[in-house]
């Protein structure tokens, strides 16, 4: 490398350091605002496809910042931040490059048990997965980027997506044009299994295939004192719950990740009546495509054998959800560098991934991108409970880091 090239490289590195320091400072300056907005959204959760007031609140905030946006069917929002770098747009007004930053916005049917002063006011509904954090962090990233548009060599698209928890929101957004003209996408999930202050953005598969099932059982109702006169659908349901665990313990290699969870079981009408019908619903999480493809047939076999043993009938409804989420290797490496620029090498986590699922995978099937796990686990603030727990909480000190990383990654990508 010539002396001139070395000097040019040194100058670029200095400029990058200045940008990162400015991002960190801007994130620190708005930290209280980010936390306050997270608490507002936490206090007012809404279920999937019912996020009307959440979307209204987001639109109000975008409008107050002067950010152009459009609402899409089902409570989604697509907003745009335009760069003012000299090369941001060509003569025809087309952006040099375009990146999408995504946040989900829906909550869960979980009763909150945290006792926090900003606990959910919507009974039986809670932001128990961190989507309240995602919204506040993306709004924070928008505020950072608005103050640095001269560093934006293209266009940043903000996606506020509904219905992630029921696996359909990303498809709705894609249908509405969320990825039209987009070169890459970035997403963040605050994560209870990763320590606060660290961030995981490894390449390759990070989350599991997500599928759903319902099992309807038909027995014969009878008086509770005359069990021999009927076919107890509740007993059959219980037998099927046990049988399903054979999939994990005996059917699949211990080296092949698989989770089968029955999330609901319903049956019966009164305490002295043998149930004539019952149903179960649940989810199956697989890592490999081979195991995923084998599940419906194997599930059907187990269910029918169990039902037949009790002279009952059973019907399986199997719904394919989202494929496993895999990070593009180039995007993952770019993100790692962005993390190091902001927080140093020690902030990079070696988290192995999870059998949770995410419909962000639908975006990654269309454009390359990266999905980040932002650590929030901190026993000092009781942030130790898993996602979807009624006690779930986060270390709010990491929220500014999430906003900063989204801004840094966007600027880094658009500057290439």
From TrEMBL:
Pfam families: M20_dimer, Peptidase_M20. The Mn(2+) ion enhances activity. NCBIfam families: amidohydrolases (TIGR01891). Mn(2+) binds at residues 129, 131, 165, 189, 388. Keywords: Hydrolase, Manganese, Metal-binding. GO terms for biological process: diaminopimelate biosynthetic process. The keyword Lipoprotein does not apply. This is Amidohydrolase. Its cofactor is Mn(2+). It comes from the Bacteria. Residues 211-308 form the Peptidase M20 dimerisation domain. Gene3D superfamilies: 3.30.70.360, Zn peptidases. GO terms for molecular function: metal ion binding; N-acetyldiaminopimelate deacetylase activity. It comes from Slackia isoflavoniconvertens.
């Amino acid at each position: 490398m010539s002396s001139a090239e070395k000097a040019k490289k040194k100058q670029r590195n200095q400029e990058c350091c200045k940008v990162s320091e400015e991002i960190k400072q801007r994130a620190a300056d708005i930290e209280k605002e980010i936390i306050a907005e997270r608490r507002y959204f936490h206090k007012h959760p809404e279920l999937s496809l019912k996020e009307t007031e959440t979307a209204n609140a987001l639109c109000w905030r975008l409008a107050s910042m002067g950010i152009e946006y459009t609402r899409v069917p089902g409570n989604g929002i697509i907003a745009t931040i335009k760069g003012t770098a000299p090369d941001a747009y060509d003569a025809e007004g087309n952006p040099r490059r375009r990146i999408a930053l995504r946040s989900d916005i829906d909550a869960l049917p979980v009763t909150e048990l945290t006792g926090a002063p900003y606990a959910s006011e919507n009974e039986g509904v809670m932001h128990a997965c961190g989507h309240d954090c995602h919204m506040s962090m993306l709004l924070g990233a928008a505020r950072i980027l608005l103050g640095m548009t001269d560093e934006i060599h293209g266009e940043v698209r903000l996606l506020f997506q509904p219905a992630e928890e029921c696996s359909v929101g990303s498809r709705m957004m894609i249908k509405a044009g969320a990825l039209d003209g987009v070169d890459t996408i970035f997403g963040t999930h605050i994560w209870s299994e990763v320590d606060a202050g660290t961030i995981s953005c490894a390449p390759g598969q990070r989350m599991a295939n997500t599928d759903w099932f319902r099992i309807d059982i038909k027995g014969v109702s009878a008086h509770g004192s005359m069990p021999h006169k009927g076919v107890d659908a509740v007993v059959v349901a219980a037998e099927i719950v046990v049988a399903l665990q054979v999939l994990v313990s005996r059917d699949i290699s211990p080296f092949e990740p698989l989770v089968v969870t029955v999330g609901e079981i319903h049956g019966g009408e009164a305490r002295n009546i043998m149930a004539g019908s019952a149903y179960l619903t649940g989810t199956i999480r697989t890592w490999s495509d081979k195991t995923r493809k084998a599940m419906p047939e194997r599930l059907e076999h187990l269910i029918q054998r169990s039902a037949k043993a009790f002279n009952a009938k059973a019907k399986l409804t199997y719904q394919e959800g989202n494929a496993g989420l895999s990070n593009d290797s180039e995007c993952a490496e770019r993100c790692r560098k962005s993390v190091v620029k902001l927080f140093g090498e020690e902030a990079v986590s070696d988290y192995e991934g999870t059998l949770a699922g995410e419909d962000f995978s639908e975006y990654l099937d269309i454009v390359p991108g990266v999905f980040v796990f932002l650590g929030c686990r901190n026993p000092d603030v009781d942030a130790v409970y898993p996602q979807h727990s009624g006690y779930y909480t986060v270390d709010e000190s990491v929220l500014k880091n999430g906003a900063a990383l989204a801004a840094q990654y966007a600027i880094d990508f658009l500057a290439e």
